[in-house]
């Protein structure tokens, strides 16, 4: 009897001691980040059957349970990813917003200074000092645009460097989680709770950088950690490795990929989430879009100023030369195409109509069966802008969105290749001065657009023009052809794109050149007309004009560029493009700030939910401490009674 009492007391003593240990552990870790409250699960020992009745034999601790709700933990992980993505986006956009705002004022100011100098020159067209001021202000515009491009390109490189550093931390976390999984498998059942907390803390930190999904295995082990939309980072005790690889076809568009030791698989950037997702989105949607907008502005400004220059006579009575480097020089045209590795195609992209230029990448797929070449092109929005098949023996010319794409050297064997077309990405870097002398500025105009013109087409004489005289170029009432009339109203003989004589040339004109007939069916390149003309538009040409002192008609035309809605399909001026970019970045920053605030509320709610399940309550633990202390003392008293009873029995013998 006394022996049974002693065993019961000892079991109670051991049980109370373990309860006290667990409670003390909870109190000690009340301020430990990621710690989950633990509780000892107490059960009754098996009873003994004696004399037809069952008698209890005490209690024992069956398990030390960790207070954990996997749904609350998953919600916390997801909200952690969302908040860090929002905060990273807001931080990046705040830097961009300040930069764009400052540069917008500088760039717009430099352009306005240029136009002001043109206005001053219009008052004194022959004044060399005023002409030098125009050149200096034009150079300042070029330098400002170049500087903006360089800074944006630096931001792009910085994001790529941040991707590398962040991926290194993700790899470290993956290795630490795999190591913890191994320790959990090796440790006894009762010693895993603190390791589980460490494991969850690492998962939550990983969630700061990317979207995380944890698949639990046997015994609640994090056997598999998945990132993105299905890429395995940790599987049991093994960890894969993330890496940053050059983009294809643009190496500057670095991609995050999973390297499992056998294959390197790029991760869809839209599925990354967290800081990694924010970085990639910022580079693609903000930096690259800003580069495109700066490039479109540079091409629009330089292209239109050059066109007006070529429509006039300089101080020496010669046709005006380009003020800036030609937007369609051979280097610029070839750099607008990114070819797939191994492609033998030779492709150039010429800008014909700046008003139709769009930002973003175009995807051009060229397929050939050896006889026919098929082309299909989509813009950045995924809209089809060109779909046509051409005989392989015909000129391979594609016209869309103000561009003319010449294709040569496609494979003769059946094949299909996809090219990336970037009409404006490098425009900000390629802008540079061409004219160097004050006398180069063309003040007198020799080509006049009719006042009633509704289109945006530009007409200019070609440097090779040998036909002199006064002419009128008229777009037909259907808008699909043009004719050239002399000063007596007689249609002029022309040569079409196939080398055949005609008086009505197909419009838009392939290659932009209007070729006169020399009388023997030989083409004489005389004028160039861009796309963008509307039915009924007309131009007056004076190829026999001589320099007239004090004529400022071309300068007056150049002044109109300051406010003319010549970009973005007639909705924006060149200056408007930068102002619109500034507004868009500011709106994105404001939206990111609001999303960050909402995400913070979501994280706070998720944290509170986890704390309500797993957090340590000091008042509750203090009460438990007193309860288990009293139980410990009571169990000690049971053992004392058992000893006294046993002593009494011994004395009675």
What labels would you give this structure?
five-stranded antiparallel β-sheet; alpha+beta; 653 residues; 44% helix
Structure description:
The protein is α+β, with helices and mostly antiparallel strands and 653 residues long. Among the domains are: 2-67 and 615-652, no CATH class; 337-424, no CATH class; 447-544. 44% of the residues lie in helices and 22% in strands. The chain contains ten helices and 31 strands. The strands form nine sheets. The protein has a five-stranded antiparallel beta sheet with strand order 13-20-15-16-17. A hairpin with a 3-residue loop joins β6 and β7 (231-235). α2 (70-123) packs parallel to α5 and α2 (70-123) runs antiparallel to α9 (574-614). The longest helix has 59 residues, at 128-186. The protein is elongated and about 150 Å long.
Question: What's the quick description here?
Answer:
The protein is 44% helix and 22% strand.
Topology of this protein?
Elements: H1 2-28, E1 38-44, E2 48-50, E3 53-55, E4 59-66, H2 70-123, H3 128-186, H4 193-209, E5 212-215, E6 224-227, E7 231-235, E8 238-239, E9 241-245, E10 255-259, E11 264-266, H5 274-310, E12 312-313, H6 330-335, E13 337-338, E14 346-351, E15 362-368, E16 372-378, E17 384-391, E18 397-400, E19 403-408, E20 415-421, H7 427-430, E21 444-445, E22 447-449, E23 459-461, E24 470-475, E25 481-486, E26 494-495, E27 501-502, E28 505-506, E29 513-517, E30 523-529, E31 538-542, H8 553-559, H9 574-614, H10 618-652
Antiparallel strand pairs: 1-4, 2-3, 5-6, 6-7, 7-8, 9-10, 10-11, 12-21, 13-20, 14-19, 15-16, 15-20, 16-17, 18-19, 22-31, 23-30, 24-25, 24-31, 25-28, 26-27, 26-29, 29-30
Helix pairs in contact: 1-10, 2-3, 2-4, 2-5, 2-8, 2-9, 3-4, 3-5, 5-9
